[in-house]
């Protein structure tokens, strides 16, 4: 017998004449599996594209043309609309008012929010007292902008509650929302009052996340309250403070409803901000080209703030 011509099998083994079978999935199956996550997010992407990306591109295109929307044949004018906006004294006034409005609002939001958060986080108050104060402090955050604007317009009226209370102390009142010297400060105060609870809640959560062991160790080493706050509490909540500050700058820079419902940008452009300027150019003057250019400028400024916010979030993570 010729052993070389016979198939010799070891016990327990099976020899296949077809050769080894490949276990790797086929290329179409791999591609289909990779496309599954995109199928899940495709409705959201389509909605964002339709409601956000397309309008932004349309407004950006309008900013380089003249006689858009109102005329069937718009004319390409390049950067002429941007030059017109940036050389408009009203826009420059609105830009300055916006800077003052968002800077004061953000700084005072931070100070008040941190102060109230420290008060609600102190062990000197009982749980019932803290609960009562939390309800009181968070009330401004529960009202809508329309309610806040109407209530404060009534309170700041020349014959309103604020002037009445000032008169009881012998202080002369004012027409707070109709006087150029006091209008911007009054609107900023209203915005501060309505927005500080968001800072308070966020910073309170950050304070409660600071390890108590660190405070106890610092107390044993002889550190006082201010030293513990400066070297223990503040470093732990600094990422939250920076993130909240940048986010508040973005939100406040887009504030429109509060100013429009209280002063409408007046008197004499004293409370004119970029958002009200853009609205007036589009729907009062029907100059959609100029309004588009102003909107693109606001978009660029907001994108710069958003870039710093996303970068800060990455550093925080």
How would you describe this structure to a colleague?
This protein is mainly alpha-helical. The chain has two domains: 27-76, no CATH class; 82-316, MetI-like (MetI-like fold, Orthogonal Bundle), CATH 1.10.3720.10. It is built from twelve helices and two strands, in the order H-E-E-H-H-H-H-H-H-H-H-H-H-H. It has helices spanning 27-62, 80-86, 89-121, 127-142, 145-155, 161-168, 180-208, 212-220, 225-253, 257-262, 274-283, 288-316; strands at 65-66, 75-76. It has a two-stranded antiparallel ribbon with strand order 1-2. The protein is flat and about 75 Å long. It starts with 26 loop residues before the first helix and ends with a helix. Mean pLDDT is 85; it is low at 1-9 and 12-17.
Explain the layout of strands and helices.
Elements: H1 27-62, E1 65-66, E2 75-76, H2 80-86, H3 89-121, H4 127-142, H5 145-155, H6 161-168, H7 180-208, H8 212-220, H9 225-253, H10 257-262, H11 274-283, H12 288-316
Helix pairs in contact: 1-12, 2-12, 3-7, 3-9, 4-7, 7-9, 8-9, 9-12, 11-12
């Amino acid at each position: 017998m010729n052993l070389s011509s016979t198939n010799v099998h070891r016990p327990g083994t099976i020899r296949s004449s077809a050769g080894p079978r490949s276990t790797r999935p086929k290329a179409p199956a791999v591609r289909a599996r990779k496309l599954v996550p995109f199928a899940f997010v495709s409705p959201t992407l389509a909605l964002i594209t339709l409601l956000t990306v397309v309008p932004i591109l349309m407004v950006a295109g309008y900013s380089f043309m003249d006689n858009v929307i109102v005329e069937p044949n718009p004319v390409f004018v390049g950067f002429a609309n941007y030059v017109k906006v940036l050389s408009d004294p009203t826009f420059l006034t609105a830009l300055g008012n916006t800077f003052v409005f968002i800077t004061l609002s953000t700084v005072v939001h931070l100070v008040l929010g941190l102060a109230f958060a420290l008060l609600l986080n102190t062990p000197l108050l009982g749980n019932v007292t803290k609960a009562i104060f939390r309800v009181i402090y968070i009330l401004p955050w529960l009202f809508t902008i329309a309610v806040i604007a109407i209530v404060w317009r009534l309170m700041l009226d020349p014959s309103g509650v604020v002037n009445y209370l000032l008169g009881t102390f012998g202080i002369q009142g004012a027409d707070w929302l109709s006087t150029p010297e006091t209008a911007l400060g009054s609107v900023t105060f209203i915005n501060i009052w309505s927005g500080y609870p968001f800072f308070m809640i966020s910073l309170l959560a950050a304070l409660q996340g600071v390890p108590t062991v660190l405070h106890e160790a610092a107390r044993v080493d002889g550190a006082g309250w201010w030293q513990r706050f400066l070297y223990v509490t503040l470093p732990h909540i600094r990422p939250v403070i920076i993130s909240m500050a940048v986010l508040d700058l973005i939100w406040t820079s887009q504030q429109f409803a509060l100013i429009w419902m209280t002063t409408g940008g007046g008197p004499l452009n004293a409370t004119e901000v970029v958002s009200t300027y853009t609205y007036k150019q589009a729907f009062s003057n029907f100059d959609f080209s100029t309004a588009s250019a102003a909107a693109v400028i606001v978009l660029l400024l907001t994108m710069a703030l958003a870039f710093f916010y996303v970068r800060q979030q990455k550093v925080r993570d």
